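Entry 14. Two folds queued back to back today. First construct below, sequence then structure tokens.
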Amino acid sequence: MSKNVALVLGSGGARGLAHIGAIEALEERGYTITSIAGCSMGSIIAGMYAAGQLKEAKEWFLQVDKQLILRMMDINLLSGNSLVKGRRIIQELEKVVPDRPIEKLRIPCTIVASDMMNTEEVIFRSGSLFEAVRASISIPLFFQPVQIGNRLLIDGGILNPLPLHLVERTPGDILIAMDISGKDSMPVTQTIPDPIDVDGTLAEVKATGIPVPTSWEKQLRQFGKRVDDYRRKRATDLGRNINFVDLLDRMSDMQIQQNTLLALRLTPPDIHAVMRQYAYNTFDFDKAQQIIADGRRIMTEALEQYEKDAKK
């Protein structure tokens, strides 16, 4: 059984920290990553691993908190196409891993972005590592798009959240996908309100000595039931529990899920490790330790199953 690996890291915001744990699990079990590819958050981890500085990257991510996240947000007041410029986060990453040409990294590394002008993938295998990363992480409306020549580049996950067909292969290697956009149900909080306490209200009124006619008591109970039914119906109305931002996020999530499934069908990996899409939110970077641990667990389970099947 070959232990050489062509590793593909998917997009998914803070869930991409699971890639660190997945790589650690591979190395702990004696696998050798001979090539790597990624997009969006997967491009950051792919680039840092290929540069030989995943340990330094992990240490940096583990000290990220909400205050640091806010400090890295260089608000874009002059452009109407994004909330954040995105330069500051790249500057912070370059303090951890200095920029270098992709073609000079330890192993072949492929980074994928999306060209919104021509609706096509843009594949980086040479040139500035962090120029490629900056393009690949450009979440639409959040990060400012990156212009390179006549191309305007945005998040690679828009077109190809799991670029299995783009990783460089060597004879006999194992194709492994770390998929952090696994199909999942959208979480919706539904809080059913407590029923109106008609009996308690009547008891309080009667305790004052005020007479309550039977007809009034009956009408009060009927009114309380109608209000309870109305409040219960509103609480279970899915449409009323989803706001405008939720709708936009869900549309993006659905697109990523379907494109991921398509990528898996077109280029089936030998090992498919999956994290559910709603396991963590896009900006849960302050949960790095837990996400990394989950990534290690998920990849370990996938490898154990693969090794078990290989022995049959």
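Second construct, same run, same settings:
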Amino acid sequence: MKYTVLDYLEATSEKYADKTAFADVQESVNWKDFVKDAKAISSFLEKYFDPRTAVPVVTEKSVLTLKLFFAALYAGCFYSFVDATFPDERLLSMISTLKAKTLVVDRKFQKKIEGLGSDCKIIYTDDLLKEVKEANVPYNPARRNQIVDVDPVYANFTSGTTGMPKAVLVNHRNVVDFISCFAEVFDIQSSENLANQAPFDFDVSVKDIFTAVFTGAAVHLVPKAFFSFPTKLLDYLEEREITTIIWAVSAMCIISTLGGFKYKKPLTLKKIMFSGEVMPVKQLRIWKENVPDAKYINLYGPTEITCNCTYAEVPQSIGEDYVLPIGIPFPNERVFLLDENDALITEAEKTGELCVSGSCVAPGYYNNGERTAQAFVQNPQNASYFERIYRTGDLASYGKDGLLYYVSRKDTQIKHMGHRIELSEIEGAVEKICSITRACCIFSQNKISAFYTGQETDKKEIVTALKTSLPVYMIPSNFIFIEEFPLTKNGKVDKRALEAKVNG
């Protein structure tokens, strides 16, 4: 029986010992050596981290980073990837949420991390690897043998309505449940090559990493810089003989909008999966015209239910008026719609909140019981026994074809550039600027626009101020000064009126 992701890793390592597991532009490792290295590193992580605590990994995306992730698991801990390019305020919030006492850091980020003023102990990766090599400590399986399937695997941060990011905790049972289904549904074989696009703090990457662990497929880590140069990206896909991509919509659109297919067509691709936001049909048609023999899959689901809960295979031929469904549930996932009174919606074309039940549902938000209790709740349709569900906050409806279709967000959370973002977090950051008294953000035409009152301020000044607290992808494209906000009859900001200003 396999209960944990390490059970699957070890089975794959035995079966495909000499086959490539992971590769970046500088390093490649087979399954046997990957496990050996992860175990060796874990022996040293045990000295600094208690079981079932977070191992924050502050590195760039690489084969070494993946070794650190699995070393954390072998040490009985869980990993959390920390992006050193984030503003100091956000980094400190993440470290605080994880209750981290120690950080594992790439030497190139020494100045940044030491400049945070955190009292965490810092272990630099070069020092760690040197110590591992010189000491050659035998691996002790004691901690690994104590892991059970409800122990955590990773914590990924998402945007938070309170202005602070939330850490979604995902355990072994969640990953085993979802990835087993995912690999089987899409028939991913050990012979396949996957091209990883997503950052390691974005749960799209979870499908790359663990699908490989479960099947023996190889994962090739695409450098972030390649997504600014479609020719390099397409060359990479051809050179690595990539068969499957599981990418954010925005990454796919880079190739189709910048005319990449005029240079080269990635004809080794057989499975093309996308998620994170709504795929523009115009761009999807361009892909299908240039890579016609591949299967195209639309994936839907928030981080809180372990990657995805529904999927839809795109028909071979689609017209300009095609409406992309989010499809049907994955096996062992109950996906349903509730109306405002928590009544079950079964009829077509009636909108409700999409809710999910099953082993895929994550334990909740790390060190945030209040937010966990709000989103992870008892199924109101079940009064007979405990059935925990996740309320996604997404509105959806059934089409006349019986498939699910995404409608919009229930609240102010949006999906932009592959990231889930709370507009209220951006508003809070804008309002911290001394010349601004109030802010309201609108997401329309795939752009974030910030309206504000107070003193009219130069856009460069606002952007400079926001870069101290927000990632670049959360900074609005437009800043619009207004004397006062339009109000509804209930005294709330009239967001429809503001959206009309953006679109007008």
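Quick look at the second one. The chain has a mean pLDDT of 94. The longest strand covers residues 388-398.
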